[in-house]
Amino acid sequence: MLKTISSPLSKKDVSTLRCGETVLLSGVVYTARDAAHARLVESVKQGEALPFPIENAIVYYVGPTPSKPGKVIGSAGPTTSYRMDAFAPALIKMGLTGMIGKGARDLEVIEAMKEFTAVYFGAVGGAGALLAQCVETSEVIAYDDLGAEAIRKLTVKDLPLTVIIDSEGNDLYIQGRADYLSSKTEN
Fold first, then answer.
1. What is the pTM of this model?
2. How far apart are CA 6 and CA 94, in angstroms?
3. Is 37 a catalytic residue?
4. What's the rounded Cα separation, in Å, for the pair 56 and 9?
5. For the chain, domain boundaries
6. Interval 159-184: pLDDT, tens
7. Cis peptide before 8 (omega within 30 of 0)
8. Considering Cα of 94, then 98, then 139, then 137, what sign does the dihedral take?
9. Any idea which fold 2-186 has?
10. Most buried residue, 5, 53, 76, 155, by most Cβ within 10 Å?
11. Residues 99, 118: contact at Cβ < 8 Å?
């Protein structure tokens, strides 16, 4: 069943999402990759304010390509999430409720998600041009010297995502494999 959700994404809303569900997300998301994450965490260590409100925010691990004339954004497909794993727990603890990317997450990230109520969504890798069609606005809000990896504020409409890891720690990569293997033994 397809579920419609919006951001900001409250902890209450996060707690209703289940591993394997497909959702359409509308609202504001912030882009950040590894270089931006390192700066965010360093800002926290220095006691500085973050460039966006972290409470109930969703971060999309993407470094979009330049936009073509008449387009809001270029290709905007997910990047591999494990590169943010060293930084994600600190941001989750501060109130980040959603992350969008591709690939597995480490145990420390999953434990932080369970403790502080966050969710990890997967976006389809290789479909960046199609995902970009869901972006209505794009504005660089921090670290413009990072180019494609600058932090952007995106407004999205009906961005298709799959809940990969829910706030209880259920992981689609593990559950899906187990389901597949059990179905093979039943046949």
1. 0.94
2. 20
3. yes
4. 5
5. 2-186
6. 999 999 999 999 999 887 777 677 77
7. yes
8. negative
9. fumarase (3.20.130)
10. 76
11. yes
